[in-house]
């Protein structure tokens, strides 16, 4: 289910922004020689972290969407660690390459916002996916579900297994991840409201490191 959802997200994002590029940028571009061929639009996606199955599924969806559209070149690169600075370097590289559309799942929305502004100033369509940069100039945000739906779903599943009472802790990933923090806020409020005999005792961050998350949970 998660892979199919990621595939749909990537295809939707690519299609919307590629079509937007076709209608707003270089409408009359043709290849040299006057053959009338359409321009190939470069759409780049920068995930939080490369190698994560969820983002790799989005990459597969992007490739499928590019093939379906026919005039889109899909580009995909993310940092090898959940590092906002390393992700920013990749984004700068795509801006320098003058891609037509740039989609980012920012590790740090606040530090990413100025780069998205640079991309927009360069005539690049900008979007976020999976996690948002709400204070940025992004044109589109494609999310897998609402924060309320995920936060409440996580809480209900956990507290059902706990019999509706007890203490629990949350091991999250990146401390600045907008989507993860929005889920935690929902969990905190929803637990207090619906499960008065339950308590969140701690929230810790493993930085997208599965081994560290396991250690923290233990």
Biggest sheet, spatial arrangement of strands:
2-1-3-4-5
- Proportion of residues in β-strands: 15-25%
CATH topology of the largest domain, by name, is Rossmann fold
Please tell me the total number of domains. Answer: 2
Mind telling me which CATH architecture of the largest domain this is? 3-Layer(aba) Sandwich
Shape: elongated
Low-pLDDT regions: 1-12, 18-35
Q: Work out the helix count.
A: 7
CATH homologous superfamily classification of the largest domain: Response regulator
The number of distinct β-strands equals 7
From the N-terminal CA to the C-terminal CA, the straight-line distance is 28 Å
What does the largest sheet look like? 5 strands, parallel
Class by SSE composition: alpha/beta
CATH class of the largest domain: Alpha Beta
SSE succession: HEHEHEHEEHEHEH
- Rg over CA atoms: 20 Å
User: Percentage of helical residues?
Assistant: 40-55%
């Amino acid at each position: 289910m998660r892979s199919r959802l990621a595939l749909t997200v990537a295809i939707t994002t690519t299609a919307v922004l590629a079509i937007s590029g076709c209608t707003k940028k270089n409408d009359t571009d043709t290849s040299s020689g006057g053959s009338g061929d359409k321009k190939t639009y470069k759409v780049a996606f920068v995930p939080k972290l490369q190698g994560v199955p969820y983002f790799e599924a989005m990459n597969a969806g992007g490739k499928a969407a590019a093939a379906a559209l026919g005039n889109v070149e899909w580009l995909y690169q993310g940092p090898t660690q959940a590092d906002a600075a390393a992700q920013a370097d990749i984004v700068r590289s795509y801006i320098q390459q003058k891609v037509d559309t740039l989609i980012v799942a920012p590790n740090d929305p606040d530090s990413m916002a100025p780069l998205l502004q640079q991309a927009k100033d360069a005539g690049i369509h900008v979007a976020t996916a999976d996690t948002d940069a709400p204070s940025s100039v992004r044109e589109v945000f494609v999310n897998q579900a609402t924060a309320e739906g995920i936060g409440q779903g996580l809480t209900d599943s956990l507290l059902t297994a706990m019999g509706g009472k007890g203490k629990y802790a949350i091991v999250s990933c990146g401390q600045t991840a907008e989507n993860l923090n929005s889920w935690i806020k929902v969990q905190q409020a929803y637990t207090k409201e619906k499960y008065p005999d339950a308590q969140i005792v701690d929230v810790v961050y493993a930085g997208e490191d599965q081994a560290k998350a396991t250690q923290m949970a233990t």
